[in-house]
Automatic annotation (TrEMBL):
Residues 17-100 form the DUF7027 domain. It comes from the Eukaryota. This is DUF7027 domain-containing protein. Keywords: Membrane, Transmembrane, Transmembrane helix. The chain crosses the membrane at residues 20-41, 53-77, 84-111, 123-141. It holds the Pfam family DUF7027. It comes from Leptidea sinapis. InterPro entries: DUF7027.
């Protein structure tokens, strides 16, 4: 599902990269929940009802991602590969949805369904933002998935050598 990578951003180890992605995901999800949750609670006189519903849906999706980010932070820092999987599945799903929404917006603009200039500018901006966010999210998922595979390989290797029960593991395991 994800591309295997050997390091994050060409110079950071997968361990540090997964921790950075975890913290960034936690921060972005929290900010998204706060901003869109507040926008969804605006008075009906200032915002159309369809906008409020879409803001509430985005806030709900960000809330789910926030919950998965908590699991990922704990899993990344405590070396628990099973706890990275919920965030990975959520990231893959969100990437697919965002790319689908980008394609849908592009089709709307190509068919000239969006007629007025304000709505057209808003749709084109959202298409670009959703597409870029989907690509970045997919890359982050590739980094986290590679780290999860690395942790699974390490656990399997150390279990096979009967080192798990000992108090001292090789030093490179802690990096």
């Amino acid at each position: 599902m994800c591309l295997p990578v050997s390091n994050c951003c060409l110079c950071i180890s997968l361990s540090v990269g997964a921790k950075i992605v975890a913290v960034l995901s936690l921060i972005v999800s929290t900010c998204t929940v706060l901003v869109y949750g507040a926008a969804a609670m605006l008075p009906p006189s200032s915002v159309r009802e369809t906008r409020r519903i879409s803001y509430a849906a985005i806030a709900l999706a960000a809330g789910i991602k926030l919950l998965m980010s908590f699991f990922m932070v704990y899993g990344a820092f405590k070396k628990r590969p099973k706890l990275l999987l919920p965030w990975l599945l959520t990231a893959w799903f969100y990437s697919l949805v965002l790319i689908g929404l980008s394609l849908f917006g592009t089709v709307l603009m190509a068919l000239q369904y969006v007629r007025d200039l304000d709505t057209s500018a808003e749709v084109s901006t959202m298409v670009a933002v959703y597409f870029v966010y989907a690509i970045v999210l997919y890359y982050f998922a590739s980094v986290v998935n590679s780290r999860r595979n690395e942790m699974n390989r390490d656990v399997f290797t150390y279990t096979g050598h009967h080192l798990v029960g000992h108090r001292v593991l090789p030093k490179h395991y802690y990096s």
